[in-house]
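Input/output pair, single chain:
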Amino acid sequence: MLDYHVHLWPHEDKATERELTVERLSEYCEEASKRGVREIALTEHLFRFRRGREIVEGFWADEPDEALREYMAAYFDHHATADLDLYMETVDQAKAAGLPVVAGLEVDYYPGRMDRVASLLDGYPFDVLLGSIHWLGTWMFDLIDSPVQQREWDSRGIEHAWRAYGQALEELAATRTTDVLAHPDLVKVAGRRPDSGVVREVETRIAEAAATSGMAAEISSAGLLKPAREAFPSKSLLQRFSDLAVPVTTASDTHGISRIALDVRHLHDAASMAGYVSLRAFSARVGYDVELGPVPPELSK
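Output:
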């Protein structure tokens, strides 16, 4: 098994250098190994890094809603504090020490700015890049504890939100900037779902975008802890991925060590039931398959 979505800092914490040590990464690997995971991908958010902010600075400036505009600016003020070079140096040191880690980032979609994002990313030796849709414009729809963000669900409407999400994901995939679609149906995170016809429509668009772009998709246990109460993707979307031969990774989306390899048995069973016999791993942004294999005995109980 793999955990190809690992963050070093909880969302609420400012990024500090205390997590950027080989010793700390060794603890992540040790805990993952106990849970049957053979390799982890360190995939911190691009917006955590000062260099990331430099190339997308002010994309929120044209937002007419003052509350959303100020919220996004404050979000970047809080989060964009880490040193990307130090992050990569630490991962390289961990690799040299023999730890089973790969170097990655989670990259949001910035309409009209992905060429700048790609130019920055091309300057680093990443193994895997996750592509994410957390925001629709400046609406941070997945911040389920923010009244400012959650009120937008009522003003925009659930069907509109789902279709806008599908379009944004299609656009992200078409840029071919990233390798894996992270939590592919994150739009359901708040537990708000339209009628089944709209869900089918959006899931079809997501699966076809992955297949057309050549991207892999992530099976993430993080949704089990959200109001959606369901892994990302849904069983129906995962089956669409399988039918279109879209490869998959598995992931916890942990922020910190506590939830690394979260519910790995669920991830294994989801992949297996959808017909997968292998997972997609990455090195130097080239994908290769690793056997899914049986559930480790200690996780079968």
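Strands lie at 2-7, 39-45, 101-108, 128-132, 180-181, 216-220, 248-251, 254-255, 278-283, 286-291. The chain has ten helices and ten strands.
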